[in-house]
Amino acid sequence: MAPVEAHAADNGEWSVNPTPPAEPGPAPRLYFFLESPPGTSVQDSVRVTNLADQPRTFRLYGADAYNTPNDGGFGLRTQDATNTDVGAWTRVGAATVTVPAKSQADVPFVITVPPNATPGDHVGGVVAMEEQPGATTKQNGVDVTVRRAVAARVYLRVSGPTVPGLRIDGVQTKSENPWLPTTVDGAYSYTVVNTGNLHLPPTLQVRVTGLFGHKIRQHGSTPQIDLLPGAQTRLGGTVSGVWPFDVVTTSVTVTADGGVQARGEDTTVVVSWPTLAVIVAAIALFIWYQKRRAQAHTAKPRRRLPEPVTVR
């Protein structure tokens, strides 16, 4: 099967969105926000819009969502992947649909929640993938055909106790070992873990300071992620302005709705070993020189004073 290139709800050639209500009402939904008790079903409809000048045929299927391990990006399983959550529970009304040019089609789907489904958020999507691969990309110098896909996210909350939670693990700071007494660059990284059963878009704050609290410059923006229940992702950034002799402290704070907060910290010592060696050698030479002076002063013969003359 050709690799799938996933996009958000619109890639400029076709879009996938929740079907809007028949009568005018609230603003159109961007995603599906559904709720159901275990052991029941929920129904809805997805709208596939063909924005091109020729008809297109799409494959439709449900997929589980996941967070990418290195940047927290939102992804959906491919059709040939094993789905165990929302993707496995979703049955779309048509396996394929052909949409005329500049037209749209509404396709119903049903999500059947198992009786043993755990409470909380279960996240996935309804995907419309082009029937025939329509693009090529370079991979290791070889042209690879790509089958593109567009999806509408599905946030399904299974009734029951909700427990939001986050944790920060593995805060780590690294920097270059400076050879000269100049400032150097560095990098920090940390892992955000969703320990609860709700999807959370956390607010991340990172503060990096040096010895005596001096400010170390951070580069890049803090990512905005939607962390799924049980997911974890590794994030990080770069810094500059680390002193050749420094104690660098990196503090990471994450907060989310519902009073959720977690914190992690790392402290690392930066030493310019060549510069330190020169300083130690200079101190040792100074101490040796002082000792030599003291020894020379002690060994110098004292001048004898003349004996007093007694006059009778």
Molecular structure report:
The chain is mostly beta strands and 312 residues long. The strands form four sheets. Strands 1, 3, 5, 6, 8, 10, 11 and 12 form an eight-stranded mixed beta sheet that branches. A four-stranded antiparallel beta sheet has the order 2-4-9-7. The radius of gyration is 33 Å and the shape is elongated. The N terminus is likely disordered.
Short description:
The protein contains 2 helices and 19 strands. The chain has 312 residues and is mainly beta.
Distance between the termini: 130 Å
Task: Return the string of H and E elements.
Answer: EEEEEEHEEEEEEEEEEEEEH
- The total strand number stands at 19
Mean pLDDT over the full residue set: 88
Structural class: mainly beta
Molecular shape: elongated
In DSSP terms, counting alpha (H) and pi (I) runs of 4 or more, how many helices? 2
- Poorly predicted spans: 1-7
Q: Strand-residue fraction?
A: over 45%
Query: Helix proportion of residues, in percent?
Result: under 10%
The biggest beta sheet, please?
A: 8 strands, mixed
